């Protein structure tokens, strides 16, 4: 929590405001017994109030606490001890799992209640009334700020039970994933070089007189080169923060099966013919999947 002096400065809470509130104390004293009653009259409309204020003993303690808190608003002393007291009130409500919304709504009532008293008791001079109302507004806002901060801090705590260890782990996992991605890029570069070797080998068949094998093989190795380029491109985009591209993996499978089909067509045996049929079926299935993914991606764009 911020130090009290900083909180006061952020709300532009001056010594003039403290003096204003102190000036209100004798008047507010008259209402200190009525306040908890009116407060209860207001919060009894909340559906879950009976769940929290279960019995006479709790209600009595709460009303005593409310009375003390109400009078402290006008004590004129807003020190670190005052901040600790409001923080304690905040944590008491966090501990009983009271929805923060209930505290906000109840604080709305307190604001209206105080303004009503001001109107009733100080409205002879409108400017003075406004000045006093501003100071009341500020102290209620400070209270609301501190109490609701307890709720937020508790929420953060449940998410970060061991904040240090968790952030170290996340950092490590991030770096490790980045390192693996770099290895992947290097692997793809090596693959690219090897595919270039395969391409040269397939071309050599053309010159050695086996034109059909050479041409189909070259076509296959060119397709593989295209796939490596696609993979590399996708990986580089991914490293730069792009989204994961499923389509490219389907295209890799598609190209691998097409290449296998090209090789199979070179052999005219019965077994190879059956294999070709299976490969054509696989290409059709992969083609449909590729088309569907491409369609979804286009629609998303
Ligand atoms: C402006 C809003 C509220 C203020 C200023 C306030 C004030 C307080 C104070 C001063 C205490 C005693 C804390 C302590 O000494 O540690 C307390 C406790 C408690 N409050 Fe509130 N309260 C507010 C809203 C509510 C609401 C809306 C509910 C329920 C619907 C509620 C239920 C309780 C309960 C159950 C306790 C614990 C009582 C006990 O077992 O001693 N409070 N509150």
Summarize the structure.
With 301 residues, this protein is mainly α.
Identify the CATH architecture of the largest domain: Orthogonal Bundle
**What order do the SSEs take from the amino end to the carboxyl end, as H and E?**
HHHHHHHHHHHH
- Can you give the helix content as a percent range? over 70%
Oligomer designation: single chain
Helical run tally? 12
Tell me the name of the CATH class of the largest domain.
Mainly Alpha
| First-to-last CA distance | 45 Å
Structural class: mainly alpha
Proportion of residues in extended strands? under 5%
Ligands and ions found: protoporphyrin IX containing FE
How would you describe what is shown here?
This protein is mainly alpha-helical and 301 residues long. It has 2 domains: 4-159, Globin-like (Orthogonal Bundle); 165-300, no CATH class. 83% of the residues lie in helices and 0% in strands. The protein contains 12 helices and no strands. It has helices spanning 4-10, 15-29, 34-43, 49-52, 56-72, 80-95, 100-122, 126-159, 163-207, 211-239, 246-264, 270-300. Helix 10 (211-239) packs antiparallel against helix 11 (246-264). It starts with a helix and ends with a helix. The mean pLDDT is 87. Protoporphyrin IX containing FE binds at residues 43, 46, 49, 52-53, 58, 61-62, 65-66, 69, 88-89, 92-93, 96, 98, 102-103, 106-107, 110.
């Amino acid at each position: 929590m911020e130090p009290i002096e900083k909180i006061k400065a952020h709300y532009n809470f001056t010594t003039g405001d403290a003096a204003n509130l102190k000036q209100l104390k004798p008047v507010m004293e008259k209402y200190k017994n009525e306040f908890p009653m009116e407060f209860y009259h207001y919060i009894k409309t909340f559906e879950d109030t009976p769940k929290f204020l279960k019995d006479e003993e709790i209600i009595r303690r709460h009303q005593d606490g409310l009375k003390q808190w109400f009078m402290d608003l006008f004590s004129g002393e807003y020190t670190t001890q005052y901040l600790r007291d409001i923080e304690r009130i905040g944590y008491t409500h966090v501990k009983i799992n009271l929805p923060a919304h209930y505290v906000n709504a109840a604080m709305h009532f307190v604001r209206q209640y105080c303004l009503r008293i001001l109107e009733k008791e100080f409205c002879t001079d409108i400017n003075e009334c406004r000045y006093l109302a501003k100071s009341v507004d500020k102290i209620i806002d400070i209270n609301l700020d501190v109490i609701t901060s307890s709720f937020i801090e508790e929420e953060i705590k449940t998410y970060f039970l061991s904040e240090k260890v968790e952030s170290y782990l996340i950092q490590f996992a991030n770096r490790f994933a980045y390192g693996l991605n770099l290895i992947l890029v290097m692997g793809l570069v090596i693959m690219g070089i090897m595919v270039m070797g395969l391409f040269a080998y397939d071309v050599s068949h053309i010159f050695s007189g086996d034109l059909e094998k050479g041409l189909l093989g070259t076509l296959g190795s060119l397709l593989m080169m295209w796939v490596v380029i696609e993979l590399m491109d996708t990986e580089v985009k991914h490293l730069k923060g792009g989204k994961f591209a499923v389509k490219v993996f389907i295209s890799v499978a598609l190209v691998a099966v097409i290449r296998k089909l090209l090789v199979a067509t070179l052999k005219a045996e019965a077994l190879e013919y059956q294999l070709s049929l299976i490969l054509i079926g696989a290409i059709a299935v992969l083609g449909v999947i590729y088309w569907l993914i491409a369609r979804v991606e286009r629609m998303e764009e």
